[in-house]
Amino acid sequence: MVRVANDGPADAQTLPSDVPGRPGASGAGDADPTALATLVEQQRALLEREDEVHRVLVRVVLDGGGLPEVAEAVAGFYGGAAAVTTTDGRLVASAGALDDVADVSALPCFDRTGRLLVEDEPVGWRDPDGPADPTRAFVRIVAGSSELGVLGAFSPGPALSPTDVHVLERAATVAALAITKEQAVAAVEGRYRAEFLRDLLAGRGGEPVDAVSHASSLGWDVDRPLVVVVAETDENDAESTRSADEVRTLQDRFARAWTQAVRARDTSMAVAGFSQEVVVLQPVEEDADADAVLRRVSELVRVVRGDGGGGRRTFTVGVSRTVTSVADLPRAYEEAETAVQVGRQVEGGSGVAHFDQLGIYRLLALVPDSADLRRFVTESLGELATDTSPESADLRHTLSVLIDTNLNVAETARRLFFHYNTLRYRIAKLERMLGPFTTDPQLRLTLALALRVHRMKGL
């Protein structure tokens, strides 16, 4: 395999000042033929090396290789490692290793979820005298006016030179060819898979046995306990000021992020992107409770979100109850959609909600006029309904814990880290403001509902 030499950039090799025709030249006879010949030979060797790198990579793609093979070839050129990421830093392919790091995603330029910190990493040649690590370089992968990703090279040896980066840019053009080929194939397969999953969720998948068989032909295993996971972007694309092309690009990136996270865990999990959401059929244990299911789903969410940055969109996730038959998927899909909508109202977006944990919020979300709910809160909580002072929020929290513990003063004091007498004083103050809720169960129910409505940030 070709090893890129660190012998300086082609455009950095300058002609001697005494070459005829250049400023300061003393005459044709003063030119050094040997220096000129050496310079020409260096330029010829550099061009030959770049062409050879390009030929090797094109042959990889024409022989059916994809991004993993391109990354492997690039890693060989530099005697180290290479990585291909999406535009926002999600690792798509990597190859090679460094002396002290077997996985490039463990390097400081990646966050703890394995995302390249594209917002911090400069593109192009690094100044070896600068504070950044000079043994890596990144270039953009571009096809026409579309940016497709980032290609990075990691060298265990001397600092990468501008010439190395120039060769890496040639490699990026071939990586663009591999990406566009993969995207074309994935687009056709993705549409077909998405249509079938949409049919399953709408109850149009046919008999369960036939649906399971067809899903298996697509590489999906739906004949096991599942929950439906719906991830919906918090930004309403229908009311967006972005252009249609930009919205489509962002949604495609969102769907690809989920697809990559799912396939990295289990290639037999069904996943597809729709207009503004992504749906995943997450396998779970049949007797798993809501907390256990949420832990598994949250692991996926953490990978998709990363540590932020990179142009990622915020989204809310809803999770259904467990189903054991594809015939129950339509009901589960409705539950997951409800969990998204109610979860966004309660948490204000970017949350993860399980249908079984929505409780009274499911009913409150059915009230068509949120103004009625706000009026109910104001009439029930009085001055505690406002956030004009820290004391209001503090007293609301005290009231909420009291109701949650069924007026158990000792347990409430323990949770709030209050002295018993301090809590007694607060209870008396709350009753002066709200009425005798400690002895009136109907008032207590009203206050409990008002506190729940007050928490619904989406009103």
UniProtKB/TrEMBL annotation:
InterPro entries: CdaR-like_regulators, CdaR_GGDEF, Homeodomain-like_sf, PucR_C-HTH_dom, PucR_C-HTH_sf. Residues 395-453 form the PucR C-terminal helix-turn-helix domain. Coiled coil: none annotated. Residues 1-32 are annotated as: Disordered. SUPFAM superfamilies: Homeodomain-like. Pfam families: GGDEF_2, HTH_30. Belongs to the CdaR family. This is Helix-turn-helix domain-containing protein. It comes from Phycicoccus sonneratiae.
